[in-house]
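Module 6 notes. Inverse folding takes a fixed backbone as the condition and produces residue identities as the prediction. Think of it as a translation problem where the source language is geometry and the target language is the twenty amino acids. Below is one complete input and output pair. Work through it position by position during the lab.
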C-alpha cells in the first residue's frame, strides 16, 4: 500500500527519508486511542449516512480484530509503516478491501493525532492522580507514626526552630494535593475533541463533530478547526504539571539523602532500597532517591523541548509537531515511575524517632522562643530580637547552649528575664507553645491529620 498522502507523487519516498520520518516506534503506543477514535468516527459517518451501516459494522469489527493483533504481537509495528495511523489503515484495507478506504472520510492525520493525544492524556491524567494519591497516603501514614517525633526545622539549610516530623511530612501532602488539583483542572481543557477539524479548515462533508465527541465521552469539541490541529498547549501544560510534581519529589529526595547521611543519622533505608559500593564495603547509598532527583532533569528537558518545538511554528499543523509525543511520553512515564518508587522507598525507610530529643535541649534554634518570651513581657519585638541576638552571641563565643547560661547572665542582658525561662529550653515546650493555625503544635498536627484523612 502506498503512503496515505502520496497520491500526487510519482516516486515512493526514499527508504532513508522514510526511516528518518517514521514515528511508529513512538506513536505506536497510541494504537488503542487511535482505534477508539476511528470507531467513534465511523459511527458518526454511519449516523450521518455518509457510509452504510454494513460498512460501519465491517470496519468496526476489523478495527477490533486489529487491536487484538497488535496486543498479541501478530501485527508488527515496524518503521516501514511510517506511523500508527498508516499501520492500522493499511491493515484494515488488507482485511476488508475497498470498504476500509472509507474510514478516513472527512478526517486528516492532523485531527486524528490531536485526538489520540488527548485521549492518551485523559487516561494518564486520571492514572497519575491515583498514583499521587497513593503517595499522599504513604506520607499521611508516616505522619501519624511521627506525631511526637521532634526534628530541627531548617531555613537556608541552617537550623531554624524545632518542629514535629509529622508537620514536615504534612507539608509534602499539601504540595502533592496542589499537583492533583492542577491535573484535574487540566482535564477540563484536555477533554475536548479536535476530531472533524480535518486538516485545519474543516470539511464540506456533513459530519457531526459533537456526536463523535459524545461517543468518546468528551466535553464538547475544540471549536476552532485551526486551533484544534495546531494547538499543543494541553501537552505543554501536562508536562509542566509533571515537572512540578518532579520538583516536589526531588526536594523530598534531597532531604532523604541528607537524612540518611551519617551526619544526620535520621533516616535508614531497607537493604532492598539501597545499594553498596564496588570499592568501599561499608557504603549504603541512597541511589533511588538520587535517581529520582536525577530523573527530574528528564522531565524538565521534555518541557523545554516541547516549548522549543512550538515557539516559532506558524499556524496550522507543521511536521515538527511529530516530536511532541517523545516529550509527552517521556514526562508522563518518568513521573509515574518516580512517584511509585518514592512510595515504596518511604514505606521501606526507618526514621529514628529519638534522634534529636537530647540534642535539641537548649539548642540555639530555641532563640525565637526567647524573643516571644520578651514580647509577652511587653518588650517591642525588634528590641527583643536584638536582646536575644546578644544572648546567642555569648553562647557561640563560649560554645555553650542556652540553658547553660545562668539567670544572672540573662538578667545582665535584660532585667525582664526570670527563672521561668528555663522552661523554654525543651524543644517539646517550644512545639507545644505554638498557637497559630497550621503550626507545628500537636493540636494543629492532629487537626491537619484528621482533615487529610477526610480529604484523601
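Target side of the pair, the amino acids:
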Amino acid at each position: 500500500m502506498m503512503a496515505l498522502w502520496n497520491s500526487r507523487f510519482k516516486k515512493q519516498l526514499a527508504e532513508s527519508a522514510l526511516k528518518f520520518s517514521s514515528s511508529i516506534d513512538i506513536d505506536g503506543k497510541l494504537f488503542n486511542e487511535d482505534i477508539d477514535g476511528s470507531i467513534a468516527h465511523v459511527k458518526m459517518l454511519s449516523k450521518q449516512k455518509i457510509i452504510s451501516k454494513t460498512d460501519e459494522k465491517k470496519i468496526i469489527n476489523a478495527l477490533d480484530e486489529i487491536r487484538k493483533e497488535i496486543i498479541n504481537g501478530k501485527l508488527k509495528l515496524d518503521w516501514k509503516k511510517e506511523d500508527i495511523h498508516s499501520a492500522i489503515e493499511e491493515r484494515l484495507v488488507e482485511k476488508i478491501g475497498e470498504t476500509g478506504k472509507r474510514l478516513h472520510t472527512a478526517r486528516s492525520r492532523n485531527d486524528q493525532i490531536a485526538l489520540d493525544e488527548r485521549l492518551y492524556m485523559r487516561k494518564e491524567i486520571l492514572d497519575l492522580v491515583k498514583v499521587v494519591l497513593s503517595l499522599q497516603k504513604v506520607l499521611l501514614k508516616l505522619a501519624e507514626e511521627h506525631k511526637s517525633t521532634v526534628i530541627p526545622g531548617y531555613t537556608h539549610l541552617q537550623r531554624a526552630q524545632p518542629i514535629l516530623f509529622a508537620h514536615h511530612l504534612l507539608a509534602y501532602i499539601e504540595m502533592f494535593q496542589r499537583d492533583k488539583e492542577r491535573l484535574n483542572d487540566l482535564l477540563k481543557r484536555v477533554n475536548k475533541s479536535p476530531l472533524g477539524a480535518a486538516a485545519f479548515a474543516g470539511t464540506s462533508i456533513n459530519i457531526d463533530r459533537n456526536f463523535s465527541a459524545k461517543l468518546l465521552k468528551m466535553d464538547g469539541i475544540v471549536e476552532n478547526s485551526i486551533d484544534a490541529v495546531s494547538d499543543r498547549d494541553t501537552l505543554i501544560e501536562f508536562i509542566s504539571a509533571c515537572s512540578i510534581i518532579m520538583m516536589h519529589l526531588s526536594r523530598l529526595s534531597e532531604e532523604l539523602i541528607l537524612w540518611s547521611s551519617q551526619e544526620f543519622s535520621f533516616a535508614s533505608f531497607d537493604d532492598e532500597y539501597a545499594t553498596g559500593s564496588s570499592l568501599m564495603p561499608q557504603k549504603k547509598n541512597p541511589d533511588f532517591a538520587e535517581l529520582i532527583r536525577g530523573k527530574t532533569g528528564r522531565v524538565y528537558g521534555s518541557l523545554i523541548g516541547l516549548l522549543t518545538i512550538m515557539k516559532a511554528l506558524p499556524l496550522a499543523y507543521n511536521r515538527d509537531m511529530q516530536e511532541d509525543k517523545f516529550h509527552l511520553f517521556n514526562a508522563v512515564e518518568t513521573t509515574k515511575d518516580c512517584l511509585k518508587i518514592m512510595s515504596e522507598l518511604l514505606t521501606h525507610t526507618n526514621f529514628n524517632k529519638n534522634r534529636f530529643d537530647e540534642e535539641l535541649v537548649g539548642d540555639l534554634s530555641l532563640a525565637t522562643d526567647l524573643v516571644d518570651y520578651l514580647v509577652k513581657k511587653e518588650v517591642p519585638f525588634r528590641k527583643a530580637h536584638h536582646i536575644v541576638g546578644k544572648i546567642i552571641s555569648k553562647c557561640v563565643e563560649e560554645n555553650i547552649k542556652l540553658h547553660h547560661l545562668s539567670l544572672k547572665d540573662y538578667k545582665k542582658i535584660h532585667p525582664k528575664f526570670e527563672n521561668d525561662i528555663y522552661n523554654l529550653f525543651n524543644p517539646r515546650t517550644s512545639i507545644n507553645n505554638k498557637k497559630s493555625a497550621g503550626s507545628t503544635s500537636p493540636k494543629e498536627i492532629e487537626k491537619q491529620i484528621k482533615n487529610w484523612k477526610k480529604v484523601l
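Reference fact for the lab report: Strands lie at 150-155, 158-164, 267-269, 349-351.
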